[in-house]
Amino acid sequence: MSGSATIRDVAQLAGVSIKTVSNVLNGYRYLRPETKERVEDAIRALDYHVNVSARNLGRGRTGAIALVVPALRSVYFAELADAVMQEASARGLTVFIEQTNNERERELRVLDGSYRSRFDGVIFSPLALGQDDVGLFDVNFPLVVLGERVFDVGADHVTMSNVAGARAATDHVLDAGAKTVVPLGLKDDASSSSGTLRFEGLRQALAARGLEVDPRSVIGVPDYFHATGAATMAQILDRGVRLDAVVAFTDTLALGAMSVLQDRGLRVPEDVLVIGFDNIEESGYSRPTLSTIDPGTRLIARHAVAALEERIGANVDGIAREEQRAPRQVVIDFELIQRQSTTR
Predict the structure, then answer these.
(1) Going by C-beta distance under 8 Å and a sequence separation of 6 or more, which residues neighbour residue 288?
(2) In 212-323, at which residue ranges do the beta strands (DSSP E only) sit?
C-alpha cells in the first residue's frame, strides 16, 4: 500500500476516526499522547503522504503565491526571487514569478483582482507605478509591497535602508581619502526610486564634509545593467571629470564602470575607489572583488513571505479587514562589505 494509502487507511490501522487523523496532521494540540503516537506510527507504516492540494482547497487556499518583479535579467531581482522561493518553500508555499518589464499596464493588472483566483497572495515590487497611484494598492486580497516607488499604500511594505546605506558607502570612500566622488545610478526620470534615495544619501555624506558632486558626473541612467554602468562611466571620463571614487547605486553598474576604468588605464583601487550596492554574488568574484552595501536581501524575503502568510491566514479565516492588524512598514538594515575595490 506504500505511496497510495489514504487517510481512511491510516485511521483504520490506528483505530481512530478520520477526524482524529486530521487533527494530528494539522498539529491540533489537545490530543492524548498515546493517540497521537498511534496515528504517527500508522502514517509511517503506510508511508502516507498528505495531499497538499486537496488540503489547501479545503481551507479555501491554493497554496501558491505570486512574486511580481520588474525583470529577472536584473541580478538583484533574480537573487531576491531565489530568496523568496526558499522562504516560501519552508512554509509549504509554491511561488509563481512574473516580470512586468517596468510596463505600467502589466503592473496595473497585478492590482485589478485578476490574480485573486489563482494565488493566495502577491508580493509585488512595482517600478512603473508611483506615489500618485497609491490609491490603487487598496486591494481586497493579501498583498505585500517591496521597494521605494510607493509608500503608505495600506498594505504591508518591506524596504531597505537606501539613504543610510548610500551615505555609509560614500563615507567609506571619503574616509579612505577620496575627494571627487562620482555617483552612478540616478535614474533619468524624476521619479522616486532607489536611485533617487541613494543619491540623497551620497549628497548628505558629501555635504557633511563641505563637498559637492561635480555636475558633469551626474548622468541619468535608463536601467541598472552592466552595459549601462560601462557606457555611463565612459561618458563621465570623456567629459574630463578627474575622479578618485565611484559610488554606484547597484553592483551591476559598479562592475560595468570598473571594467571601463581599467580599460582606460585607471587602477582600482589605487587610482579610483569603487563601491556598489546590493551585494550580489558576482561582486565577490570580480577582479578586484567589489566592496558593496548588503541591503539584507534574505531578510527582505523572509519578512515579505512571513507578512504575506499572516495576511493569507487572516483572509482564509474570514477576519474582517478592519479587525486585522494595521499594515506595517519594515525597513531592513544594511551592512557595508569592504573588499578589494576600496582597500589600498
Answers:
(1) 268, 269, 339, 340, 341
(2) 245-248, 273-275, 292-294
Contact 342, 270 (CB under 8 A): no
Q: Which residues contact 130 (CB under 8 A, 6 or more apart)?
A: 149, 150, 191, 192
Distance CA 211, CA 232 (A): 22
Query: CB count, 10 Å around CB of 306?
Result: 16
- Cα pseudo-dihedral 276, 282, 285, 287, rounded to 10: -50
Mean pLDDT on 29-36: 81
List the helix and strand counts (H, then E) for the chain.
Answer: 11, 11
pLDDT on residue 59: 55
Cα first-last separation, the chain: 67
**pLDDT tens per residue across span 75-124:** 999 999 999 999 999 988 999 999 999 899 999 999 998 888 889 999 99
pLDDT for res 187: 87
Q: Which residue has the cell 572583488?
A: 289
Whole-number Cα distances in Å, 29 to 2, 23, 25, 188, 310: 28, 8, 11, 57, 20
Q: What is the pTM of this model?
A: 0.81
Question: Looking at residue 242, what is its pLDDT?
Answer: 94
Residue closest to 162 by CA, chosen among 148, 183, 182, 174 = 148
Residues 6+ apart with CB under 8 A from 135: none
Average pLDDT, the chain: 90
Q: Where in the chain does DSSP place strands (E)?
A: 64-69, 94-99, 121-124, 143-146, 156-160, 181-184, 245-248, 273-275, 292-294, 329-332, 335-337
CA 148 to CA 127: how far, in whole Å? 8
**CA triple 32-37-42, angle to 5 deg:** 130
